[in-house]
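INPUT
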Amino acid sequence: MILPKMILKNAFRRKVRTLLTILATAVAILAFGLLRTVITTWYGAAETTAADRLVTRNSVSLIFPLPLSYYEKIRHVEGVREVTYGSWFGGFYISEKNFFANFAMEPESYLNLYREFLIPEDQKQDFLRDRRGALVGVGLMERFGWDLGDTVTLKGTIYPGDWPLVIRAVYRGRTPNVDETQFVFHWEYLNETLKDTAPARANEVGFYILGIRDPSRAAEVAREVDAMFENSPAETLTETEKAFVMGFISMSEAIITVIQAVSLVIIVIILAVVANTMAMTTRERTGEYAVLKTLGFSGFQITVLIMGEALVITCLGALLGILLTYPAAYGFKEALKQFFPLFNVDPMTVVLDLGVAVLVGAAAAVIPARQAVSIRIAEGLRRMG
Amino acid sequence: MGDAIVQIRNVSKAYRRGDIPVPVLTDLSFDIAQGEFLSIMGPSGSGKSTLLNLIAGIDSVDSGSIIVGGEDITTLSETELADWRAGNVGFIFQFYNLIPVLTAFENVELPLHLTGLSKAERREHVEAALGMVNLTTRMDHYPGQLSGGEQQRVAIARAVVIDPVILVADEPTGDLDRRSAGDVLDLMDRLNTEIGKTIIMVTHDPHAAERAHLVRHLEKGEFGT
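OUTPUT
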């Protein structure tokens, strides 16, 4: 059919204008894609959670601890197969700008529950044996240029002082969405030190993580755990790991809302740019559309011609924008890896990019197409002369 | 001459200038015979282009009827009119009105895309039409690469390629030099005498008009003697 050929030829009749419009669309799609990636990264932590894991914390706030004595009680709740515990350590390496997630955990039960960490068996045994040993994600190792066996001194904030730890094991994620920038060491090492330096804070944990046999009984198990500690000095709140992580994310809801609003503004900007181009194009070609109508082409075919041209421009812009998103996301990740260790472009973002391009292309052509179709042939022919 | 191919009955048409209706054609009635080469002359604003547009089905009457090839086109909807034009009317415009991004071949082929012809059949028709206007060697050229006379000949090939019932020409020589205008008029004359095409031409140019077999003068929406 002649229409696809005309669409392509028309799209590049004004090369500079078309290329500038494609470039503007590409930049907007790039910005849209990066903002979407920030959002998906934010929510990505919730996606890596397991359905068969629950988190028990102090019902007042996460910053209040729970007694270690809860461990045995929780372990014997019907449906619980494994329990681990630990505390958010909140230390940094050399200076505060070197921020990364670091936890003191009971190591054996933790590794039993977190099968998504792939660790060579010999390293795993070395880590379990050494009370000052640390398990470090490969991403963090690369960031600081550490090697296995290196001693790394964390400076405590919640637990003041210098904490020298020896890297005994390095993990990789079983799937690409596993955070490879965590730092884990023995909770026992933390607790033994606290017994000497701050005895009032010893034998307390920040949270328990429960592995359950049947994820469909998660609510029931959570209720049973919380019921055990009702009216105690440290009441608990037990929820799925996903709900726990989402609780953190919801604290940043305002930022996410702003990012989403900016994404919408970007869509409106692309719409305005493409609509302007299409309006100019259609005005210039009113006479040609009148000729086509004279020859018997229908209003629908004229609409296809105009909408097709808009879609060619927006889709080419989107493809260029998507191609640019990957290196830009890599640069973003390298620059801000302490905040976004998993800054990967989600396939759904690419689908959304293309969806936005199609939507904007179609919307930008609606008014010009309507004008071209509704103009009287005789009037259109006059404009051609 | 044959029977009437176009029958115009009591046609009136007015345009509005603001709230004021300006009559262009008033209760006009006449016939155009099959195989006729009719030239309509008249001063600017006499309504000759409006009449041509009405006969070609690209404008609508206020009252009256226009029957072309037995079909009352004043009763057709916009979509039906588009289909009717595609199969029955060949257009020749003053400024050629070729699509600049298409080659001469593609411009001539354009109306054939609305028919059910295969690619091979379309090629055959287009080559025949371009052969008739003596432009087969320039079929891959774009309009911008052709002279005014050549462009008008491509436009004539585009008009005849569908084998229309009538050919309408609005000032077909108005943008051409004398020699090219002569070539175009020769071509139209051949289409009329050799193939028997009914041609209705609107022109200001007395030289062009005298090539027609019948000349009618339109003044203030009515035919003079």
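end of record. Chain A touches chain B at residues 1-2, 5-6, 9-10, 13, 287-288, 291-299, 376-378, 381, 384-385 (CB under 8 Å).
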